[in-house]
């Protein structure tokens, strides 16, 4: 309905199809603007319609008087022809351009193509305009190529090669697809109606009675109905591909559950083929016995007939799904005729022979007598239920061929639930009818009639003129309890029941023979089990799994020849039940995870009902056969562990992921309600690694004391123009986090873009973390090149230490002799890898040319190749920075590479020397203690060094030992250093003075005016006054290096209290000189300063 009131707004007022999006072409000339301005009418709103079909079409409407300008725009969906000077983004020249909602924009309207997966056979995947394209300034020189105006207006467009690929997919998409009746309803009905209907149902009614018999049917139906509802919910929560139960479970619960259940479900279907075929063969052998036409003996006859039958069924399946579907329809017709034949037989008057066998037509007395249970020895409700329940399975027969359905989202719910309803009504109807017509025991003798004067035993048969009382003392051959062929006897025409048995067995076998390869193919395509990739290949338009068919055939033949199906049958039933349980649990899990992506179109489900269904399935597994249930769980658990260990590289957005997020969120929120306690303190670190792969040693040492105990965030600051920085940052986020995962480093990656390094770090210090999981320690590498670095870099470096202290965050500075940055090594590696790829590509080209032109024409190229020293590629080793080929040693610093991996190696027996000079709350002691708990550092002993008075060394040593024992920290030795505050030797002090000389102001040697001028021009320089004021501290740093050289030169690691530079008192260059002289020529050093809050306690 148009919202326009004026009749002349649209000249082309013919309504268009709902699958077109209407765009107005507007004249923005001055004359038109004036005309519009003089119009007193209220503004008009263009009518826009959206449809389900996606054809990139527009309805072009025109302003009055402008239609002749647009004769080149076609109305039937073809590309709009444009003038060469047409500019889609030109808002200055007097031109016409396409408008979306009346505005000049590339912003796209919602379309299904944007949401498809790449390679979708249902239609092309189209990329919408990126946020960058819409948000950034528009270039003035972007012109619309002829034939692309409609694409520009919608912001989609597609490369030509992509269009060609989609066209090929459309050509290939001529596969046979089934609707909900032939694809789901027919299959499910045939699979649910099995041999049980004709052979065992009468016995179940005889044992359990009509009342409990109906209850058994309803209980079985409750399990399958709940499973059907869960299946329907999952199937309507997005597009369903091939794979049936495996696909539904794997996409809901993830590859671990899906991979484990998919394999056993496919195997169960393959063995079920053998079970159904043997059922068919047994019926045929019984007929051969009656006609004395046995071939060998009963067992071998079953094997022969079964093998021949499987071959025929395989031929039908391999011929294509269309032939298999036709065969299923024919079998269903036979089955329906057989069932109708039974109901007709119940109203045909019984003769004396049938009466002697217990059939008396509908009798109230028989109904009343058979209503209650009459369990024989060894039977009970659950044993009878266990026998019947497999007859109710088969509800996934339609879902298993989900890839061959026209609309799985509609077909699976409708077909499955209707099949459950129809088959349940049929089962209940047959149970009630057979229970109301046939007595439990009958002799089959027409002479067992009641003679007048005989005492009646009060049974229904006695009241109807027959005495079957001797069945109480001796076994009888007829009646519900004894004769499995009751339905044949009751039916109007017995051979039709035999035909029904044939139909039920063959249809179930055929359905399983199709289901097993389809499920198995989907499992193999996902490459969860690498060894099974061979079976993923499909053939023909329907992508038929021919290899899977033959594998299923082999399995079926094997079990037919074994002929021990009575043992395997309970396990197969439990395999099916396990899949039902997981489908129900999948529905519950997806609902419980509260993912916004869980939006089933089929709304008739409840998460708690699904959970009840899952529990019910598990209980039924044990009711049917407890040892089979145990075997099922063991196999599934083993496969689950295997898939979890292999970690397949898939991401299906499973509810397991959603629940992990919800659990993490809940735990994080719950953690905020818990006050911090010193006993639960753990180092939670921000590590300024830049890209985590560029400073691996810094990350390794931090990871050593945060792994499995604390938070570790690898941080990178991008400095420079905001636009470029943000682009570079966003493009590398996923890659760098993936690198951490690949290298099994339990850390997060975070990055910020800032105008300067210090601002970026300041932002990270304030904003990183979540709730209680906030960083409390900053870890940075020592700035080795501080003497050559620009002033701003030094100010930023020292500034972030000040900022950390301002935010009450501890600081750890790590120094190793070779430095941390290996970005140059990585760059060399990248170049080598590119050269290797080019070499391999050249070899491939040579081989291709050799194949095409023969050896004569390409001989010269080989000679050139030999000159280029092209050889066969060596076996490829790990391309990570850990393993660099020795042949390239000269191209980078080998020592740097070795240093970058030193914390990955096992440290062996040695020491970690802890110089706990200042009490910072205990962080200086806690970090080395945590290190000794790690596998790589466990052989290292702690040696504790503390300052003290020379005349109280023993007392202070005892006091420190007592404190450490209260902290429950093991140590190898304690050293009290009494000579820390003495002056260093002259050589050491001279080295320090030479170090700071370039950065001194020397104002005392100059006149006052010159000195003041120098202070203003170079405020960062070290003044004589400052140097004199902190001379004792400078002495201490130099002296400490001497002591470290004396005591800890051979240590594996030194942990040392970090000196603090008082803000405004210590210049940046002097502080850097302190750090340099303190850690010079030493093993790896950790300079640690906590936030002066307790991180250790001896209270319980």
What does this molecule look like?
This protein has 1100 residues and is an alpha/beta fold. The protein is 51% helix and 7% strand. The protein has a 10-stranded mixed beta sheet, with helices on both faces. Helix 5 crosses helix 18 and helix 7 (201-235) packs across helix 14 (381-388).
User: Number of helical runs?
Assistant: 36
Termini distance?
76 Å
User: How would you classify the helix and strand content by structural class?
Assistant: alpha/beta
Tell me the strand percentage band: 5-15%
The strand line-up of the biggest sheet is 6-5-4-7-8-13-12-9-10-11
Helicity level: 40-55%
Give me the Rg, rounded.
42 Å
**What is the global morphology?**
elongated
Kindly report the average pLDDT value.
Answer: 79
Please give the number of β-strands.
Answer: 13
Low-confidence stretches: 1-98, 140-173, 855-892
Largest sheet: 10 strands, mixed
Top keywords for this entry?
alpha/beta, 10-stranded mixed sheet, 1100 residues, disordered N terminus, 3-stranded mixed sheet, elongated
Summarize the structure.
This protein has 1100 residues and is α/β, with parallel strands linked by helices.
Question: Which SSEs are present, and which pair or pack?
Answer:
Elements: E1 21-27, H1 30-38, E2 58-62, E3 96-98, H2 131-135, H3 149-154, H4 160-172, H5 180-192, H6 195-199, H7 201-235, H8 244-253, H9 255-290, H10 298-319, H11 321-347, H12 352-356, H13 364-371, H14 381-388, H15 408-437, H16 460-463, H17 486-490, H18 494-525, H19 546-562, H20 565-592, H21 607-624, H22 626-646, H23 655-672, E4 685-687, H24 696-706, E5 712-719, H25 722-742, E6 748-754, H26 757-767, E7 777-781, H27 791-806, E8 810-815, H28 823-867, H29 894-900, E9 910-915, H30 923-932, E10 940-947, H31 953-966, E11 973-977, H32 986-996, H33 1008-1017, H34 1024-1029, H35 1031-1047, E12 1053-1057, H36 1068-1079, E13 1085-1089
Parallel strand pairs: 1-2, 4-5, 4-7, 5-6, 7-8, 9-10, 9-12, 10-11, 12-13
Antiparallel strand pairs: 1-3, 8-13
């Amino acid at each position: 309905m148009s919202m326009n009131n004026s009749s002349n707004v649209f000249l082309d007022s013919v309504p268009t199809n709902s699958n077109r999006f209407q765009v107005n072409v507007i004249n923005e000339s001055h004359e038109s603007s004036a005309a519009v301005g003089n119009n007193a009418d209220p503004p008009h709103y263009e009518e826009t319609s959206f449809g389900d079909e996606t054809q990139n079409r527009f309805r072009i409407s025109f302003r009055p008087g402008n239609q002749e300008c647009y004769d080149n725009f076609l109305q039937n969906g073809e590309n709009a022809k444009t003038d060469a000077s047409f500019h889609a983004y030109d808002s200055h020249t007097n031109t016409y351009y396409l408008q979306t909602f009346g505005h000049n924009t590339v912003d796209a309207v919602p379309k299904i193509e944007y949401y498809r997966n790449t390679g979708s056979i249902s239609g092309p995947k189209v990329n919408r305009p990126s946020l960058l394209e819409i948000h950034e300034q528009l270039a003035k020189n972007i012109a619309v190529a002829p034939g692309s105006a409609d694409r520009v207006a919608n912001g989609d467009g597609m490369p030509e090669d992509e269009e060609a690929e989609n066209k090929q997919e459309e050509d290939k998409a001529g596969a046979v697809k089934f609707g909900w009746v032939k694809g789901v309803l027919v299959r499910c009905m045939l699979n649910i109606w099995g041999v049980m209907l004709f052979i065992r149902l009468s016995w179940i009614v005889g044992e359990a009675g009509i009342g409990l018999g109906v209850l058994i049917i309803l209980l079985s139906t409750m399990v399958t109905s709940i499973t059907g509802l869960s299946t329907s919910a999952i199937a309507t929560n997005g597009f369903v591909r091939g794979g049936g139960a495996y696909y539904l479970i794997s996409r809901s619960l993830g590859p671990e559950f899906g991979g484990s259940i998919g394999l056993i479900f496919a195997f169960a279907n393959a063995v079920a083929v053998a079970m159904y075929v043997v059922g068919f063969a047994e019926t045929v052998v019984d007929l051969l016995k009656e006609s004395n036409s046995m071939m060998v003996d009963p067992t071998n006859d079953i094997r022969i007939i079964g093998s021949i039958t499987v071959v025929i069924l395989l031929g039908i399946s391999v011929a294509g799904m269309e032939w298999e579907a036709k065969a299923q329809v024919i079998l269903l017709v036979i089955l329906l005729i057989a069932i109708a034949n039974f109901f007709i037989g119940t109203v045909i008057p019984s003769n004396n022979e049938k009466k002697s066998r217990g059939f008396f037509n509908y009798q109230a007395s028989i109904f009343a007598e058979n209503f209650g249970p009459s369990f024989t020895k060894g039977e009970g409700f659950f044993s009878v239920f266990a026998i019947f329940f497999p007859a109710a399975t088969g509800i996934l027969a339609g879902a298993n061929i989900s890839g061959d359905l026209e609309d799985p989202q509609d077909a699976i719910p409708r077909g499955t639930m209707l099949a459950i309803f129809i088959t349940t009504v049929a089962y209940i109807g047959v149970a009630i009818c057979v229970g109301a017509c046939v007595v439990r025991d009958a002799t089959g003798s027409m002479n067992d009639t009641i003679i007048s004067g005989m005492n009646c035993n009060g049974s229904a048969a006695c009241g109807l003129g027959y005495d079957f009382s001797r069945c109480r003392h001796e076994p009888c051959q007829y009646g519900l309890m004894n004769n499995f062929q009751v339905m044949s006897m009751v039916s109007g025409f017995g051979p039709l029941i035999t035909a029904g048995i044939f139909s039920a067995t063959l249809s179930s076998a055929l359905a399983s023979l199709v289901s097993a390869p389809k499920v198995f193919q989907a499992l193999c395509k996902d490459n969860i089990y690498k060894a099974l990739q061979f079976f993923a290949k499909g053939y023909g338009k329907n992508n038929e799994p021919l290899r899977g068919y033959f594998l299923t055939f082999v399995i079926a033949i094997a079990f037919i020849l074994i002929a021990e199906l009575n043992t395997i049958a309970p396990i197969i039933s439990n395999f099916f039940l396990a899949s039902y349980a997981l489908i129900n649990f999948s529905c519950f899990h997806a609902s419980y995870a509260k993912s916004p992506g869980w939006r089933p179109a089929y709304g008739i489900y409840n998460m708690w009902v699904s959970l009840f269904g899952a529990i019910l399935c598990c209980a039924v597994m044990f009711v049917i056969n407890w040892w089979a249930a145990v075997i099922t769980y063991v196999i599934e658990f083993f496969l689950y562990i295997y898939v979890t260990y292999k970690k397949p590289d898939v991401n299906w957005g499973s509810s397991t992921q959603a629940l992990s997020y919800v659990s993490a969120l809940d735990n994080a929120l719950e953690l905020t309600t818990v006050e911090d306690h010193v006993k639960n303190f753990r180092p939670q670190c921000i590590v300024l690694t830049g890209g985590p792969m560029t400073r691996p040693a810094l990350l390794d040492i931090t990871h050593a004391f945060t792994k499995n105990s604390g938070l570790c965030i690898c941080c990178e600051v991008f400095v420079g123009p905001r636009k470029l920085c943000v682009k570079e940052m966003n493009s590398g986020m996923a890659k760098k986090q993936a690198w951490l995962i690949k290298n099994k480093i339990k850390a997060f990656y975070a990055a910020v873009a800032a105008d300067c390094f210090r601002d970026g770090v300041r932002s990270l210090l304030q904003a990183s973390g979540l709730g209680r999981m906030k960083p409390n320690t900053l870890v940075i590498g020592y700035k080795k090149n501080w003497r050559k670095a620009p002033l701003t870099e030094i100010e930023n470096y020292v500034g972030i230490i000040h900022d950390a202290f301002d935010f009450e965050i501890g600081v750890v500075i790590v120094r190793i002799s070779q430095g941390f940055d290996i970005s140059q090594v990585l760059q060399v590696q990248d170049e080598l890898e590119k050269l290797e790829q080019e070499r391999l590509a050249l070899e491939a080209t040579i081989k291709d040319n050799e194949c095409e032109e023969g050896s004569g024409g390409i001989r010269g190229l080989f000679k050139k190749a030999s000159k280029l020293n092209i050889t066969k590629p060596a076996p490829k080793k790990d391309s990570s920075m850990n393993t660099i080929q020795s042949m390239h040693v000269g191209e980078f610093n080998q020592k740097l590479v070795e240093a970058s991996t030193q914390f990955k190696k096992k440290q062996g027996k040695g020491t970690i020397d802890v110089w706990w000079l200042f009490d910072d709350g205990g962080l200086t002691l806690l970090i080395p203690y945590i290190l000794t708990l790690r596998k790589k550092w466990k052989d290292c002993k702690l040696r504790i060094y503390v300052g003290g008075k020379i005349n109280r060394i023993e007392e202070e040593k005892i006091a420190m030992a007592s404190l450490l024992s209260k902290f429950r920290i093991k140590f190898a030795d304690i050293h009290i250093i009494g000579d820390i505050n003495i002056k260093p030797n002259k050589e050491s002090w001279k080295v320090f003075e030479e170090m700071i000389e370039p950065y001194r102001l020397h104002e005392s040697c100059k006149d006052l005016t010159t000195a003041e001028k120098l202070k203003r021009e170079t405020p960062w320089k070290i003044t004589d006054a400052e140097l004199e004021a902190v001379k004792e501290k400078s002495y201490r740093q130099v002296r400490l290096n001497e002591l470290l050289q004396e005591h800890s030169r051979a240590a594996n690691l030194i942990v040392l209290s970090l000196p603090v530079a008082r803000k405004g008192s210590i210049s940046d260059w002097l502080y850097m000189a302190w750090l340099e002289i303190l850690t010079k020529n030493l093993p790896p050093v950790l300079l640690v300063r906590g936030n002066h809050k307790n991180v250790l306690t001896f209270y319980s």
